[in-house]
UniProtKB/TrEMBL annotation:
The lineage of its organism: Bacteria, Pseudomonadati, Pseudomonadota, Gammaproteobacteria, Cellvibrionales. CDD domains: S4. Residues 115-124 have a biased composition (Basic residues). The keyword Phosphoprotein does not apply. Keywords: DNA-binding, RNA-binding, Stress response. Residues 8-71 form the RNA-binding S4 domain. Belongs to the HSP15 family. Residues 125-135 have a biased composition (Basic and acidic residues). This is Heat shock protein 15. It comes from the Bacteria.
Amino acid sequence: MPDKSKKIRLDKWLWAARFYKTRSLAKQAIEGGKVHFDGARCKVSKEVVVGSELAIRQGYDVKTVFVEQLSDQRRGFDVAKELYRETDDSIAKRAMNSEQRRQQNAGMVHTERRPNKRDRRLIHGFKDAMRQDQE
C-alpha cells in the first residue's frame, strides 16, 4: 500500500508508477534529460514528494503529471495510476500532437513488401535525377 512518509528515489517511483519497464531505463531517461522535476533537470536519487510536478518525455509525447502518492513497489496498472495525476493540458496537448502525426502520415503509401534490388535502383535513379534538376 502506498505510504506518504517514505522517502522514495525518483527512478524507483517512475518504475513503480509504470512509466518505465525497469529502473535502469528510468535512470537512463533521467540522466538523458527526459525527466524534469518541478521544471528542472534532476538526478536519479532525487527524493520524490507528494505534490511535485514531473515532465516526462516518452517518445514523441511529454506527459506532465503531479505526484499524488508514493510507492516503491511495482503493482498493477490500476494501483500505479493512483500514484499520479496527469494534467488536463497535458492530455489535450498529447491528443493534438497525436492527431497531427496521424494526419501527416495519412498520405504515406505503405507497400506490402520491402524494395528489391530493381526497385532500389529505380529509387536511386529517380533521386539522382531530382538532384540534377535542382542544380
